[in-house]
From TrEMBL:
GO terms for molecular function: protein serine/threonine phosphatase activity. It comes from the Bacteria. Keywords: Hydrolase. The lineage of its organism: Bacteria, Bacillati, Actinomycetota, Actinomycetes, Kitasatosporales. InterPro entries: Bact_Sigma-Reg (IPR052016), PPM-type-like_dom_sf (IPR036457), PPM-type_phosphatase-like_dom (IPR001932). Gene3D superfamilies: PPM-type phosphatase domain. The keyword Repressor does not apply. It comes from Streptomyces mutomycini. Its EC number is 3.1.3.16. The keyword Glycoprotein does not apply. This is PP2C family protein-serine/threonine phosphatase. It is an enzyme of class 3 (hydrolase).
Amino acid sequence: MDRPNGIERVLREAAPHQIFDALRDLIESRYGASQVDLLVADYAMTMLQPVGVLPHTRSPVPVHGSDPGRAFGAQEPHTVRNPDASTVTVYVPVSVRGDRHGVLSITLPDDGGGPDEALVEDFRACADALAHELVVAERDTDLFLRARRAERLTLAAEMQWQLLPGRSCARPEYSVGAQLEPAYAVHGDNFDWSASADDLTLTVNNGMGEGIEAALLTNLAVNALRNARRAGLSLADQAYLADQAIYGQYQGSSYLATLLLRFDLPTGNVEIIDAGSPRVWRLRAGVVEAIELEAQMPLGMFEDTVYTPQHFTVEPGDRLFFVSDGVYDALSPSGEKYSVRALVSAITETRLLPATQVPRAVLEKLLGHRGPGPSMDDALVLCLDWHGRQAEA
């Protein structure tokens, strides 16, 4: 059976908006499945939304406390038998390079033995092939992007989400997860990353202002940083050129706080520029501590600002947190700020979760503190687990 190659060929030949339809037809004909569904994670990462022609789709499924949510969270297949209907359903995560897109649900007749390991691996191959094609298809169709929306995005949020590289990624040396809140009305907070053979460049941005103005500022900053990075410039020069671009546009009336980091993958050495940025926390051997840095001017505040990198080292097992001002400044209904103590407690309580799940869990604790009222500011949480590079034999 030409499992992986055959699946990929079928998906490549399908129109972008029909890739899931093509995969569903293949699974139903090849494996005798009675139902095949694709559920994609919404922007808040709290719901799994069925893909279909809106508004004629099934109801969304919560990530927490559901069978497909279990597969999504653990990133492992999960099998559920339904004796009343004589069926068995296999939920398989749809992910690419650590970025979690959703879950593939496949329902089969139950012969009493359940799906064997080889069959589950076939379904994983289907889900993996679909995940890669989803990334490509989103350039040409809105079907899957629309399915992700539990509610309408503001225009500012639309602009911010389109800037992101993803919400998680993984390599042998590290794994990263990040989340923005409020997901459907985010203003100026943003993050970006890019990896090569021996380094990872990471930026965490906290833009001033609200709505479209904040989104435009962040768009300018992120693209200026990418332009400098892709030209092969040093971290200091990336900050300098982005600073010049923002100052040239706004003349100091608007500026952007950012963290710029470059991780050397073989050694764990980190070069960092703190441009009035979100704070950095490290969890090492169960102890949470802030990484103290020399704060430099935000990007675009003054003309011809010179930035000086600082350095520290990460060790295997370290977990780094990057948290924007919207976390510290969040107010409870009684007006009490979300304290550093509460943040440290949240970091400690989530220490056993994988990096991809940590930002959502921390933000849930923040929302519990803030209550149901509207947010006064964006909140960004990014978590990086450092595994280190294994020495070659």
